[in-house]
């Protein structure tokens, strides 16, 4: 954007989702409120920041960790500030730029504010969107953070072999639906668990899982797993934890692998659940690995090379749950913890 007299720059309203105060327990809609400020559509003189118009925002369960006072040292400095807008991954369009790597009109994905317009002070951490023949909202999921998570887990961390027997929890969510489909493309037998019959039907009928079950209707996870894995599980892609993880440890094959990128059942309980089957890690000589996408952003070019053809050739389906309007973002986020979402949860702020 050409330099302008600062007094002539257009000033617009900027709706924002504000964080009320630090929380304990599950997030609630009342932990946020909506306000409207104003913002000038120009970066400050001499700044190397960029100003963006937000299009799509990603509602991710891990945002809730930033709503708490510091409990883990690695989260220090990442907490939200009460009275300020929250932020997270999103897709946006550049309105003004002081960074030579970004031009007005560029589309980006990365960390941005839950607001209509955001001034991003560290644009070097953003990804420029080069491929627009796929839905832009995909850059909050299959081509964004969730996509990096699924790609790295399957293609870099524990890569299955043809015929392997795979179990995926939270299988209809942003990451699980991708893990299952990638494993099917590799010739694996894949079973997923989800929280209602509609999601189970999605896994079996649209996403190509061999089997799926509603964990809420299973009285004994051990019995359920033996039903679908009578010979045991080769790889478990873990997102739930607790009783499900405990049951899985007792149903793994010898030398099986467990990759954990989340344990949503443990996020909002006062005391973590005790595992009874941890000795099975030794008995079955299991390999277990904790995982976060943050260590694998360097794989993004490989992800694009692999996954974009899958999308274009319709070899992979990506299910999204998009709510319209920034003001509906908090309810969509809170709904993640009761399984209200159907696929990857996204809030649409603007479509252009």
Automatic annotation (TrEMBL):
SUPFAM superfamilies reported for this sequence: GroES-like, NAD(P)-binding Rossmann-fold domains
Residue intervals passing through the bilayer: 136-158
All residue ranges annotated as the Enoyl reductase (ER) domain in the record: 58-347
GO molecular function: 2-alkenal reductase [NAD(P)H] activity
Keyword S-adenosyl-L-methionine: no
InterPro entries: ADH-like_C, ADH_N_2, ER, GroES-like_sf, MDR_fam, NAD(P)-bd_dom_sf
Pfam family, one: ADH_zinc_N
Keyword terms of this UniProt record: Membrane, Oxidoreductase, Transmembrane, Transmembrane helix
Stated name of the protein: Enoyl reductase (ER) domain-containing protein
Source organism (scientific name): Acacia crassicarpa (northern wattle)
């Amino acid at each position: 954007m050409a330099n302008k007299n600062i007094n002539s720059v257009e000033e617009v309203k900027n709706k924002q989702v504000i964080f009320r105060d630090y929380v304990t327990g599950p997030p609630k809609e009342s932990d946020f409120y909506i306000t409207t400020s104003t913002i000038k559509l120009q970066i400050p003189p001499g700044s190397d920041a960029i100003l963006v118009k937000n299009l799509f925002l990603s509602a991710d369960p891990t945002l809730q960790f930033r709503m708490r006072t510091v409990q883990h040292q690695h989260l220090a400095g990442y907490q939200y500030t009460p009275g300020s807008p929250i932020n997270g991954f999103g897709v946006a369009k550049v309105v003004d730029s002081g960074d030579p790597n970004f031009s007005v009109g560029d589309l980006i994905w990365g960390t941005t504010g839950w607001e209509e317009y955001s001034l991003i002070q560290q644009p070097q951490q953003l990804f420029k969107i080069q491929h627009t023949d796929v839905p832009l909202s995909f850059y909050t999921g299959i081509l964004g953070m969730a996509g990096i998570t699924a790609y790295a887990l399957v293609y870099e961390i524990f890569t299955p072999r043809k015929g392997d027997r795979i179990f995926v929890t939270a299988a209809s969510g942003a990451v699980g639906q991708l893990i299952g489909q990638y494993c099917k493309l590799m010739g694996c037998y894949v079973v997923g668990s989800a929280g209602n019959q509609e999601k189970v039907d999605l896994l079996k009928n649209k996403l190509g899982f061999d089997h799926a079950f509603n964990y809420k209707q299973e009285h004994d996870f051990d019995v359920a797993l033996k039903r679908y894995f009578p010979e045991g599980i080769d790889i478990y892609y873990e997102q739930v934890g607790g009783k499900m993880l405990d049951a899985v440890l007792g149903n793994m094959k010898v030398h099986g692998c467990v990759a954990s990128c989340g344990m949503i059942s443990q996020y909002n309980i006062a005391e973590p659940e005790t595992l009874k089957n941890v000795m099975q890690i030794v008995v079955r000589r299991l390999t277990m690995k904790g995982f976060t996408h943050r260590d694998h952003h360097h794989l993004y070019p490989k992800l694009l090379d692999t996954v974009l053809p899958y999308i274009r050739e319709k070899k992979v389906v990506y299910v999204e749950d998009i709510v319209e309007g920034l003001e509906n973002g908090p309810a969509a986020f809170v709904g993640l913890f009761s399984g209200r979402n159907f696929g990857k949860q996204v809030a649409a702020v603007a479509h252009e």
